[in-house]
Every structure is written in structure tokens, then in C-alpha cells.
Design a protein that fits this description.
single chain, about 110 residues, mainly beta, four-stranded antiparallel β-sheet, two-stranded antiparallel ribbon
């Protein structure tokens, strides 16, 4: 398996996809966590597995990015303090009242455990 690093946008009015070309974007990856933050109208991405060469082990990621569909931009967010370990194949949810995205502890880490 090889990861992709492209960004696509779905238009529900025309039932079609458009490939976007943002100037900055998360690196090539798959099995990432992604959640919609409805309070700020942005998608939040965390982690995933970077694998850009077939036959080579991937690298679990630990970065956080935000997608702003109005501006059409990805922005990497530097986190302060503790953050989840590098992981992929994990789940994320948006905790509405607290206005915070959550990443589950269930997933796969660099060590291959849950």
C-alpha cells in the first residue's frame, strides 16, 4: 500500500469531486483521524501512517492539521503540552458541548499495539 497526499472536495449540489491544490497540506499518509469541528467550521486531522514508497515500512504520524473549506487551506497546528502518541487507524469524534475534537486511544501505535 502506498499513501496519497492529495486534497479533494465534494460538491453535494453537482454530485462531483474537485481536486484542490492548496499551497500547504499534510504529508502523504493513510489511516488518519479526521473530524469535523462544527463550532469553527473546520476539519481537524491527527496522525495517520506515512507510506510513500511501496515495500517500505510506514511511519506513524503525530501531527495536527486543520482544513478550512472557506479559505481552501490546510494549516499545521503546533500543540502545547501532552498530545496523543504517533498513531494510525484510530477514531476521532467531536465533543460538541466542550467544543473539542477527541482522538481515541484505540488504534495502532508505532509498536503495533492498541
Amino acid at each position: 500500500m502506498v499513501s496519497f497526499g492529495d486534497t479533494w472536495e465534494w460538491d453535494p449540489g453537482t454530485h462531483s469531486w474537485s481536486q484542490l491544490q492548496p499551497t500547504a497540506s499534510p504529508g502523504v499518509r493513510h489511516d488518519l483521524g479526521l473530524v469535523w469541528d462544527s463550532s469553527r467550521n473546520k476539519a481537524v486531522l491527527f496522525g495517520g501512517m506515512q507510506k510513500d514508497t511501496a515495500g517500505v515500512d510506514g511511519i506513524p504520524m503525530q501531527d495536527t492539521w486543520e482544513w478550512d473549506p472557506t479559505a481552501g487551506t490546510w494549516t499545521e497546528r503546533t500543540t502545547q503540552g501532552n498530545k496523543p502518541s504517533p498513531r494510525y487507524a484510530h477514531s476521532m469524534a467531536f465533543a460538541g458541548p466542550s467544543r473539542r475534537p477527541l482522538s481515541s486511544a484505540v488504534g495502532t501505535s508505532r509498536l503495533g499495539g492498541a
